[in-house]
Write a structure and sequence with these properties.
This protein is of the alpha/beta class and 143 residues long. It has one domain: Beta Polymerase, domain 2 (2-Layer Sandwich), CATH 3.30.460.80. The chain has three helices and seven strands.
C-alpha cells in the first residue's frame, strides 16, 4: 500500500495523519482505538513491524510503532499519560514485537499487558525497581 492507501484505511481510527511522501506517513491515535488500527493493518496484508520507539516527552510517554506497509512506512504515535502507562501487547498480531515490547517495559516503564515474556532484556536483575534509564527524572533540589 502506498501512503495514501494506508491513510484511507486507518483514517476512521486516528486523530491526525500527515503524509510525508508517497512512501512515508505519520499518524496519531489513542490506546482505545490502537488495536483496531493494528487489526485493520493486519487484515490488509501488513505483516511486519520494524520497531517501536518510546520517548518520555515530559508530559506523557510517546510510543511510535513503525510498520512496513510495502512500500509505505507507517509511523503510528500513541500517547500514554504518566498516570496510566499501560498498553496491550501486539505480539498476537505481530510476533516480531516481542523484543521491542520488552525493551519499552524495561527502559521506559510502560506496562505491556498480556506480554508473553516480560523478563528483563538489558538491565541486570539487581537494577532498582522503578528506575527507567530512558525516562526523564525530576532532579531533586539540593539544600
Amino acid at each position: 500500500m502506498n501512503a495514501q492507501e494506508v491513510a484511507d484505511l486507518i483514517k476512521p481510527e486516528v486523530d491526525e495523519i500527515k503524509i510525508i511522501s508517497e512512501r512515508c506517513l505519520f499518524a496519531s491515535s489513542d490506546k482505545k482505538r490502537f488495536l483496531n488500527i493494528l487489526k485493520s493493518l493486519k487484515d490488509n496484508g501488513v505483516t511486519h513491524i520494524s520497531t517501536i520507539t518510546a520517548l518520555d516527552n515530559g508530559k506523557s510517554i510517546e510510543l511510535i510503532y513503525h510498520f512496513d506497509c510495502k512500500p509505505a512506512l507507517l509511523n503510528l504515535k500513541i500517547f500514554l499519560p504518566m498516570d496510566d502507562l499501560k498498553i496491550p501487547t501486539i505480539t498476537d498480531l505481530f510476533p516480531g514485537a516481542v523484543l521491542y515490547e520488552r525493551d519499552i517495559m524495561e527502559m521506559i516503564g510502560v506496562i505491556v499487558e498480556g506480554h508473553p515474556d516480560p523478563r528483563r532484556l538489558f538491565l541486570p536483575e539487581d537494577w532498582p525497581q522503578g528506575k527507567y534509564p530512558l525516562r526523564k527524572q525530576k532532579e531533586e533540589k539540593k539544600a
